[in-house]
Design a protein that fits this description.
Order of helices and strands: HHHHHHHHHHHHHHHHHHEE
Largest sheet: 2 strands, antiparallel
Helix content: 55-70%
Mean pLDDT: 93
Shape: globular
Number of helices: 18
Number of strands: 2
Oligomer: single chain
Radius of gyration: 23 Å
Low-confidence stretches: 1-12
Length: about 550
């Protein structure tokens, strides 16, 4: 009722004038679709830089005595690599990129609630990345992406630059979260109730509060670290009355929910891909939607399981261990629902579908090792070893990055009007899947045998496994390069996609590719969720979207 009233001429019908000129259209655009693509391109550049740093790490570890770079340089490289992948690649791609481009179309909106704020959010992002990489000029941060004090207090000047850069990214994320939440609450098409929203919208709906709340804690911690480094105010230095544990609490109060900021949108992506390419209704729509809420709530209650080795009182360890294990239940519900969706379906193994299926395999393994690490005795044994490196990458590369590739191959035709090469795409998938597992699977064994993480030199007994991991990492890099080549090649040479090459059923596929700046000539009405492939499309008011009839005045 409230949604329908809004569409009678309220906020949902607002639209900015058509952008004119290259600068307003493509640089300082307030169109959510252009901003989404800006995020994807910028984060793609940082993916290349972060990937190059990863390969430098793997080259260093080919030999037990290192020798490729000094230990100090090695510390800087892995610190900036981790910071890049978390804050400049995965989060911006999933929220700023896919979030901006896809969900306003899926809810039948003409734009996000605050287009100018959206543009500001994006333009905070590239300077933050430049600041992070500029830190190499003055001595980059060297205490890992976690930057625990007191090491971060003793770091070179670039550590302060790191604080400022990540703080800027945090402001950008917080503004994006506010914008997305208001848009989803106030600008859904008439009839689009919460239980009729596409599951990608549900994923963004749950992620937005995480961006707003958790990032605030990180911002406060970064500000405190910056102030202590620059002005000597003792927040974390124990010799001056500060507490290094305070940083860990604040950092992980953000960073554990941040794991879900980096994976919940991926759950939304694969929840769109599976029913489309299995030609079946999604199994357990409400279970998938509501389990996302459970994961988000539980995500705020488990930060201290990262701190079992910090001297935490034993009576506090047990509740954090149990709560962490509980997250496996809603996550398992999703995996069961996706597998049940595939079961008996007429599966089309497109590249997007292959990456989505690969995601289930690798993310599930990362989730299982997460349950191991939730157990205090196991965590005390494996903490600080390569087992953690393996677990983290199975979640964030095998999970998040695999989902991002699935989303790129799925929505590229909507963004550009062109299809990507399926042949190149499938080469990219298989090389990535093989390269990824060849790189990170051996690290579980290395960790259990006791190889510590974040070391530039190591015991020679681990050299063979490290050489295997490094060799497969080059295969994974080739796979990523193939996808980048595919993206660039297909912009001009790809086959024309038409408006709906996958016969998908959500609203973004019912309008031209790429969409007009106003999205819809008429805001459609919705009367069911979009996943029942046995029924006609559940929309009214889309009859003129694919015709040459001019857009009504209200759309301008």
């Amino acid at each position: 009722m409230a949604v329908a009233a809004v569409h009678a001429g309220g906020i949902a019908d607002h639209i900015h004038p058509e952008p004119q000129g290259f600068v307003r259209k493509y640089l300082f655009s307030i169109d959510h679709k252009i901003i989404g693509i800006q995020y994807l391109i910028t984060a793609g550049v940082f993916l290349v830089l972060g990937g190059l740093l990863a390969e430098l790490i793997r080259v260093q570890l080919m030999n037990a005595n290192g020798g490729f770079m000094t230990p100090d340089t090695y510390n800087e490289v892995y610190s900036v690599h981790g910071s890049t992948m978390v804050w400049l690649v995965i989060i911006p791609m999933l929220t700023g990129g896919f979030g901006n481009f896809v969900f306003p179309l899926q809810i039948g909106a003409r734009d996000v609630a605050f287009p100018w704020l959206n543009m500001l959010s994006f333009w905070l992002f590239p300077p933050a990345g430049l600041m992070l990489y500029g830190s190499f000029l003055m001595g980059a941060p060297a205490a890992g992406w976690t930057e625990y004090p007191p090491m971060s207090l003793q770091g070179q000047a670039g550590t302060s630059m790191w604080c400022a850069a990540i703080f800027l990214v945090g402001v950008s994320s917080t503004l994006t979260g506010i914008n997305f939440l208001v848009t989803l609450l106030k600008m859904r098409a008439p009839g689009m109730t919460y239980t009729r929203m596409p599951l990608f919208c549900w994923a963004q709906f749950v992620t937005a509060p995480l961006l707003m709340i958790a990032t605030t804690a990180l911002g406060a911690a970064l500000a405190a670290l910056f102030i202590e480094r620059q002005f000597g105010v003792p927040f974390f230095d124990p010799t001056k009355g500060g507490s290094p544990l305070l940083w860990q609490h604040m950092f992980w109060f953000y960073s554990h929910p941040a794991v879900y900021i980096m994976i919940l949108p991926v759950f939304g992506i694969v929840s769109e891909v599976f029913p489309t390419f299995a030609r079946k209704p999604i199994f357990g729509y409400k279970m998938i939607a509501f389990s996302s809420c459970s994961i988000a709530i539980l995500g705020f209650m488990v930060w201290a399981h990262h701190m079992f080795t910090s001297g935490m009182a034993p009576f506090l360890q047990l509740p954090f261990m149990v709560l962490t294990m509980l997250i496996a239940i809603p996550t398992g519900i999703k995996i069961f629902s996706w597998v049940a969706t595939l079961w008996g379906g007429k599966i089309h193994f497109s590249t997007a579908m292959l990456f989505a299926i690969g995601f289930i395999a690798t993310f599930t393994l990362g989730g299982i090792t997460g349950v191991f690490l939730a157990a205090v005795p196991f965590d005390l044994h494996a903490h600080g070893t390569y087992f953690i490196v393996a677990h983290l990458h199975y979640v964030l590369v095998g999970g998040s990055l695999m989902g991002i590739f699935s989303g790129i191959y799925f929505w590229y035709p909507k963004m550009t009007g062109r299809l990507m090469s399926e042949k190149l795409g499938k080469w990219s998938f298989w090389l990535f899947f093989i390269g990824f597992n060849g790189t990170f699977l051996p690290m579980h064994n290395m960790g259990l045998l006791g190889m510590p993480r974040r070391v530039a030199e190591y015991d020679p007994q681990f050299q063979t496994l490290n050489r295997i991991a490094s060799s497969f990492s080059f295969v994974m890099t080739i796979a990523i390069l193939l996808t980048i080549i595919n993206v660039l090649y297909s912009i001009k040479k790809g086959k024309r996609a038409g408006h709906n090459p996958w016969n998908a059923r959500t609203l973004e596929w019912q309008i031209p590719s790429p969409p007009h700046y106003y999205n819809f000539k008429h805001i459609p009405s919705v009367f069911a969720n979009p996943y029942d492939f046995n029924e006609p499309l559940p929309y009214r008011g889309l009859e003129e979207e694919l015709t040459d009839s001019p857009a009504p005045m209200g759309a301008h």
